[in-house]
Design a protein that fits this description.
The structure is a single chain. By secondary structure, the protein is mostly beta strands. The protein is 0% helix and 46% strand. It is built from no helices and eleven strands. The strands form two sheets. Strands 2, 4, 5, 6, 9, 10 and 11 form a seven-stranded mixed beta sheet that branches. Strand 5 and strand 6 form a beta hairpin.
Length: 123
């Protein structure tokens, strides 16, 4: 599965961005999806995950209430809406697909990864 992330960029603190992750040509609904990020010098961090239907979601404490994961299986796309962005949200953001209908916050449980999208939040 090839995942194509887009929507990153530069935004001021307090602003919003929406990341998209497309999986063209695949039966997208067979996969649980997740978003992770990695800042320079830091380990990869789990952010959010959703089940195959999108009805079950799970967030890390660091983004709960600010970020929203959603998916459109008809478009083979998962989204991460990011609001109230902070400078500490600056990182490369990755989408990932898991060959399961169930969510996970462990990066090792995901089978496919996108190429990453840079998000930079200025103070």
């Amino acid at each position: 599965v090839q995942l194509q992330a887009s929507g990153g960029g530069l935004v001021q603190a307090g602003g919003s961005l929406r990341l998209s992750c497309a999986a063209p040509g695949r039966t997208f609904s067979n996969y649980a999806m997740g978003w992770f990020r990695q800042a320079p010098g830091k380990e990869r961090e789990f952010l959010a995950a959703c089940s195959w239907s999108g009805k079950t979601t799970y967030y890390s404490d660091s983004v709960k209430g600010r970020f929203t994961i959603s998916r459109d299986n008809a478009k083979n796309t998962v989204y991460l809406q990011m609001n109230s962005l902070k400078p500490e949200d600056t990182a490369v953001y990755f989408c990932a697909a898991r060959s399961s209908k169930y969510i996970s916050d462990a990066g090792g449980d995901y089978d496919y990864w996108g190429q990453g999208a840079q998000v930079t939040v200025s103070s």
